[in-house]
Amino acid sequence: MAGDSPYTVKWGILATGGIAETFTKDLLTNPAIRDVSDVKHELVAVASSSSADRAADFVKRVDGLSSVKAYGSYAELVADPNVDIVYVATPHSHHFQNTMLCLEAGKNVLCEKAFTVTVAQAKKLVDKAKEKNLFLMEAVWTRCFPLSIKVRELISSGAIGTVYRTFGKLVFSITDTLACPAADLSFGKANPDGSLDFPDTNRMVSLDLAGGALLDLGIYALTWVFQSLYHVQPEASKEAPKVVSAINKYKTGADEQTSIICQFPQHATMGIATTGMRVATDPDGQKTAGAAIRIQGSEGEIQVLHPAYRPTAYRVIKKDSDGKVEVVDCPIPTDPQRNNWGHGMFWEADECARCLRDGKKQSAFMPWEESVVIMDVMDQVLQQGSVTYPALITTDVYDAKSPLNTGNQ
Ligand SMILES: NC(=O)c1ccc[n+]([C@@H]2O[C@H](COP(=O)([O-])OP(=O)(O)OC[C@H]3O[C@@H](n4cnc5c(N)ncnc54)[C@H](OP(=O)(O)O)[C@@H]3O)[C@@H](O)[C@H]2O)c1
């Protein structure tokens, strides 16, 4: 497409919380900061289930144009003919109903992780996208990082021989700001007795909001297990893992510490994903604790440095390296014209734009089938740990008037 003008995508933002703001600021950075010239993004509408004023405040915070529509309901957003694609940024509890609302209205969707609360819901979303011939992607932004693409290429090219095992961990303590993937972590602090101090209504621990370490954080540890052991499997021999897991529960009933073994016996590989809210992957905030992800092959290993959800460096340790380690830095660019915004979420937005431009309904970085298999793993883990969420958020029956769509929940 060299020489052509960039393909422009018009975005609608559904919900006005922490990650919606981070994502939208990324959207509004100049693509040139990341050497992108084939696509660009426009913010055209924002919706808050709380009020139109809240949406308008959001538009101000992200320095949006005066033409950006600020709606006081999700229904109005999905009815806006000017919106090409909706970014769903509500808590996971809401993803199924909100994404279905968008798809039913004929909108393409980028939906935050975790995709849904159950695998049945994930399958229904994929079926609906197929039926409506729409683009749909789970927003596992890490997969679109140039670093992740490079690591997948290294694995596929045999740079560390045959890969046999991956360790992935995403553990954070609520005092560890570096490892905080959510804006609301400042709500809590660790008590001296070791208990967690989130309000029980906080989305990290509330069952009503599908809280718990697994769906919020563990998904990143799992995504590295999947990127390195499943994504790279040949299509003809794709093998979903056997799953063994253990969960320690928080007082609300949500999982606070969770460990998962994914076994792929036909490929002789195994992945171990751990997550939790009590101790940190990076306890001193100085990245001295070693790799967050270790991908181990017959000829060496690739280590992805903390944080696993937003990595900026990896290293390759070859069997015959004689103590020499190759460290590769992959910095995330920022936009000096836009208050130095730039978090790394623009790469997934670019991926959506290219898919829309090319008529693709799903991204090869995060294919539908893989989102469904990962949701299946998480579903099994939650069942093995007896974590039960309320029927309102686990139903796979779409209801446009669900309180999850109308803002009464
Ligand atoms: N990719 C990442 O790095 C990353 C980081 C953090 C979070 N996330 C994901 O993004 C999603 C949102 O996380 P967040 O940290 O942005 O959450 P948040 O700050 O609590 O924002 C969630 C937004 O959802 C809307 N909402 C509707 N009903 C709600 C309810 N009953 N309770 C709370 N909020 C409700 C609200 O917006 P309105 O009032 O405007 O409708 C609220 O501001 C989660 O699925 C999370 O896993 C991803």
UniProtKB/TrEMBL annotation:
Record-linked InterPro entries: Gfo/Idh/MocA-like_OxRdtase_N (IPR000683), Gfo/Idh/MocA_domain (IPR050984), NAD(P)-bd_dom_sf (IPR036291)
Listed GO MF terms: D-xylose 1-dehydrogenase (NADP+) activity; nucleotide binding
Reactions catalysed: D-xylose + NADP(+) = D-xylono-1,5-lactone + NADPH + H(+)
Keywords: Oxidoreductase
Sequence ranges assigned to domain Gfo/Idh/MocA-like oxidoreductase N-terminal in this UniProt record: 10-137
Enzyme Commission code: 1.1.1.179
Entry annotated with the keyword Transmembrane helix: no
Record carries keyword Oxidoreductase: yes
Family the entry assigns: Belongs to the Gfo/Idh/MocA family.
The protein's name: D-xylose 1-dehydrogenase (NADP(+), D-xylono-1,5-lactone-forming)
Species this chain originates from: Emericellopsis atlantica
